Amino acid sequence: MKELIFYKSALEDALEAHQWPSDPDQLYRPIAYILGIGGKRLRPVLTLMTCACFGGDHKKAMPAALAVELFHNFSLIHDDIMDQAPLRRGQVTVHHKWDLNTGILSGDALLILAYQHFESYAPQVFMELAQLFSKTALEVCEGQQYDMDFESRDEVAVTQYLKMIEYKTAVLVGAAMKMGAIVAGAPSDAQQRIYDFGLSLGMAFQLQDDYLDAFGDPETFGKQVGGDIISGKKTYLYLSALAAASVEQRSALLKLYQNQNLEDATKVSQALDLFQATGAPAKIQTAIQDYTMEAFRQLDAIDMDQRHKEQLRDFGTALMDRKV
Questions:
Q1: Residue 45 forms beta bridges with which residues?
Q2: How far apart are the first and last CA of the chain?
């Protein structure tokens, strides 16, 4: 979509022009580093795009968009520390490039810097943005805690998993879009509907990611296919398979995920066979479709220029059909 390219370019220019403090260097250089290694910038781009779709000037939404991007990168630094991850976007993670304490402190600074970007708005807009941001930030933390809790639990319901990805991933997509609507001065009912649109798309996005991790093309996916299986993550595919499995299939799947001695390729192959046998791929595809259609229902109810609606609809369709 040419609109996404335009808004991403505007965001990249704003990030490049941003002057970070130079002292203390050990605090600010890691921030410039993680922001400089790229990423899709999907959430802040949606802030800019949504503002324009509601008739606002996307430039006025730039501080809010930057706040979203800084918060997202704060969460990535801390996630990498908790996951003990050595790489992020193909580059060394902050806590590995520097050290653990630097990662924690630079991440904390990113969160504070994110809030500072709201200070350029008038008091009423500032209050609305800050309240939404605080609510969303806390939900993201709650989602991360649910995710960590699930690692040590044998039983996780599909509904619990959906709540986890809603908080960990989808709420920030919804909030990013609502921020654009707030800056544009959209009516409150339209703000809520665009939030729900983003929330549903965020759910579809994460479920599609789960599906591609297992069944994606290694040439296009950009990550190791089967990585969730190898690490024993309880994804929608795994939980759906477990719920629909026969006694024998359930036993085989549980033993497979508990087996630390199998070769990765063997473990992935056997898990995929069990997913297929229990109908899990069809279930996740249905869920992706349902969330996408719910997003479109919210979009249809918004009073917005049809051309802009089509831009958002095209974006949602592209997300659902993506291969990467």
A1: none
A2: 16
The pTM of this model reads 0.93
Separation between Cα atoms, residue 30 and residue 16, nearest integer Å: 15
Q: Give yes or no for a contact between 118 and 64, defined as CB atoms under 8 angstroms apart.
A: yes
**Structure tokens belonging to residue 148:** 């960590």
pLDDT digits (tens, 9 = 90+) for 186-198: 999 999 999 999 9
Cα–Cα distance list, 21 to 31, 37, 68, 200 (Å): 10, 19, 20, 38
Task: Annotate 58-122 with three-state secondary structure.
Answer: HHHHHHHHHHHHHHHHHHHHHHHHHHCCCEECCEECHHHHCCHHHHHHHHHHHHHHHHHHHHHCC
Structure tokens, 52: 């324009």
What token pair was written down for 249? 């299939």
**Average pLDDT rounded to a whole number, residues 225-248:** 92
Helix, strand, coil distribution of the chain in percent, nearest 5: 80, 0, 20
Q: Dump pLDDT digits (tens) for 168-213.
A: 999 999 999 999 999 999 999 999 999 999 999 999 999 999 999 9
Q: Which two tokens stand for residue 51?
A: 């503002």
CA dihedral over 39, 42, 47, 53, signed as positive or negative: positive
Model pLDDT, residue 154: 75
CA angle 38/44/48 to nearest 5° reads 130
DSSP conformational letter for 271: H
Class of residue 218 by CB neighbours under 10 A (exposed 0-12, middle 13-18, buried 19+): exposed
Give the model's pLDDT for residue 151. Answer: 85
Cα 250 to Cα 154: distance, rounded to the nearest angstrom: 12
